[in-house]
Amino acid sequence: MKPLLEVSHVSYSYHTLAGETPALSDITFTVDSGEFLAIVGPSGCGKSTLLSLLSGLLTPEQGTIHINNSPISTHQTNIGYMLQKDHLFEWRTVYRNVILGLEIQNRKTEENLAHVEQMLRDYGLSAFKNARPSELSGGMRQRAALIRTLALDPSLLLLDEPFSALDYQTRLNVCDDVYQIIKKEKKTAILVTHDLSEAISMADRIFILSKRPATIQKTVSVHFDPSELLPMKRRHAREFKEYFNEIWKELNQNE
Ligand code: ADP
Ligand code: MG
């Protein structure tokens, strides 16, 4: 089977009046359909830049990126992006927030709206359809933001530190929720995080990036027994500490 995503020898630098900032250097990897990839690395190393390239917001200076065998374009519609801030609009109800993407892309079909209804029911937001975002807890807001993204049925989901604005307790719960939703909707996901534990508790595979300009310094495949453990359970599994130590050591070689 061909991989869903193919990134080949990608490099990128920012050019400003102050000069050139090389952000990524010769990045090559593939992601299979249904895989959950996490990317960790020091702050400012180029993680968000990599996601911007994958989403088509930026164009590589060198190298190529393909999704489903087609080159990434600047108006990529089959990629969903979730950020640290949920960007829910207070002047819209929860329902009108989650259908916003469908509205903008003129895709409010019966089928797509039924999928939204289904997700609101499955993920505990049905009763809050007519509420305003400010009436939701932090965790519910992130779920609503995820449903809005999934409403467009993206083939690939990009998550840029989506939990870092939440307090610790909420974060652990939202991690479990988001993980379950992604698995249930059979999505392929790339999670960028500076939180090692988060990466280990969610991913099938972890890339450790070097300092800027980022290269893939190491890849770690993650296996838990039994393999379907939820993130919270993974944190308490025997394997967790071993992965943590391995990646921690690698990251500190960076310092
Ligand atoms: P990370 O997400 O890993 O913290 P980023 O990808 O956001 O890192 O940034 C990588 C480097 O590129 C940083 O040094 C940052 O200052 C620089 N950078 C990011 N965005 C811009 C921009 N728009 N213009 C110039 N430099 C930028
Ligand atoms: Mg970032």
What small molecules does this complex bind? Answer: adenosine-5'-diphosphate, magnesium ion
Mean pLDDT: 93
**Main sheet attributes: strand count, strand direction, barrel closure:** 6 strands, mixed
In the CATH hierarchy, the third-tier topology of the domain at 5-84 and 157-252 is known as Rossmann fold
Terminal CA distance reads 39 Å
Number of strands: 10
Name of the CATH architecture of the domain at 5-84 and 157-252: 3-Layer(aba) Sandwich
Going by helix content, strand content and strand pairing, the class is alpha/beta
Number of helices: 9
> What is the radius of gyration computed over CA atoms, rounded to a whole number of angstroms?
18 Å
N-to-C order of helices and strands: EEEHEEEHHHHEHEHEEHH
**CATH homologous superfamily grouping of the domain at 5-84 and 157-252:** P-loop containing nucleotide triphosphate hydrolases
Rough outline: globular
Record the strand order, biggest sheet: 6-7-8-3-9-10
Roughly what fraction of the amino acids lie in strands? Answer: 15-25%
Low-confidence runs (pLDDT<50, min 5 residues)?
A: none
Helix content: 25-40%
CATH level 1 name of the domain at 5-84 and 157-252: Alpha Beta
